[in-house]
Amino acid sequence: MTMTDTTHDPHDGAGPRARETSAPEAAVAKNRRVLSSAPIASALVHLCVPMAAAMAVGSVYNVINAGFIGSQHDTSLLAAITFGTPLLGIIMAVGGVFGVGGSSLMSRLLGASEHDPSQAKEIKHVAAFSLWGAILTGAVLGALGLILLDPLVAALGADASAAAATRAYVGVMLAFVPVLAAAFALEQIVRSEGAARQAMTGMIISTVGNLLFDVLFILVLHWGVAGAALAIGLGGVASVAYWLVWLHRTSENVSFAPRWFTLRGDIVRPVFGIGASELVQSSFLIVTTLVLNHLASTYGDGALAAMGVAVRIAQVPEFLVMGVTIGVLPLLAYTFGKGDAARLNVALRGAAFTVGAIVLVFSGAVFLFREQVFTVFSTDPAVIAIGLVVLTAQLVATIVNGFTGLIISLFQATGLVIPALGMSLAQGVLFVPIVLLSNLWFGLAGIIWALTVTEALVFVTGLVLWFASRGRIARGLADGSPERAEAAIEA
């Protein structure tokens, strides 16, 4: 399929031109225009709606997956998924270090290439380092996890009644760590060029694959949580295959050929600089989940099961918000690399307004119908009673954590390592003492609300860091050199 392209190419110095372009080439050109010059409203729709849709589909899948496991009428199976949640955090951390760090630098370099086209060549080095780094690191961690499987299950907090199911779930997940880490990294790499629709397609392919495999492995073959983990892994394989093929066929700037892999300091430092904040954030998510699991387990499997289901329900509006805060990152990074202060500010305000609207509409709707939704997954009155309190606390937290995520995306997009790292540190440093004291003073209710209190304090921390960093962002935007992207990171 071909079409006529009569748009002006800002890089060839020529006027309007007509030539035949393929549909993939037209899509790539459109993605570039979205980042560079499209109206902010349409740019946000292009970048954020596909991400929000994909993440919403993923969150719905998590709820359905819990329903599949719940249909087995074994509370220990639901508890096993909750115990295994930190493992997904580890995989996200590995993929995030290379994916978020790499993609933010790639978008800044793409923006800087409007002033110096030679910057585009560096994107290949960043892409190859990001993907292969995620795969190799994931392989090492997966192998170590399988060797130390029993101690790992114990460290995750699984008690005697849930240990066997947790071991089965975690063991299968560990085998797929390299693939899933690559999937997380590739998703970010695809989005770095503004290809939000393709990122969404890969995520939906993974989710649909998970769902189909769940039906086969859980409902037909009765493999329980091991089947749920296998479905996640195979879904990841499908998304990786799609993204690799799409990038190979369409992207002029991205290559994963081994010859582009490099350990140059000007590539490794910026990737790890921003990736470190993602690592710390994911690490504290793991710590947070472990602490919650250990404390909640003292109140029985019912409390754990209630938390697991409630968190999955609350993820529906939360993932919609994340779709915006994650989706807007390439736009913020590109405009910063380009040095377009006005466009950066308008994009930031538009994203903030969108986050507020989503929280008001969707979190409010889930809150109003929280009891009806929860009873789909459990009919145990004790589990429902605890779960409704957990769900309420989670929904209150979404009021602030969406804006917190947007502030973190701004720091990552502009290469501000210290503020991004500070935001990531704040949550873990604040949460542990808050949850321990809350448990001591208020029991289970204190555990449930501790995360909400922490999110509010992290948001306040983010506002302080944002005001303190505005001058550095302005100086980075005012720098007219094509090396702006790297210089901002080294500052």
- Pick out the low-confidence regions: 1-19, 480-491
Number of domains: 1
Structural class: mainly alpha
The ordered string of helix (H) and strand (E) elements is EEHHHHHHHHHHHHHHHHHH
Largest sheet: spatial strand order: 1-2
Helix content: over 70%
What's the helix count?
18
Molecular shape: globular
Radius of gyration: 22 Å
Q: What is the total tally of β strands?
A: 2
What fraction of the residues are assigned to beta strands by DSSP? under 5%
Distance between the termini: 47 Å
- Indicate the mean pLDDT: 79
Main β-sheet, in a few words?
2 strands, antiparallel
Please provide a written account of the structure.
This protein is mostly helical and 491 residues long. It has one domain. The protein is 83% helix and 2% strand. The chain contains 18 helices and 2 strands. Strands 1-2 form a two-stranded antiparallel ribbon. The longest helix has 38 residues. The chain is globular. It starts with a strand and ends with a helix.
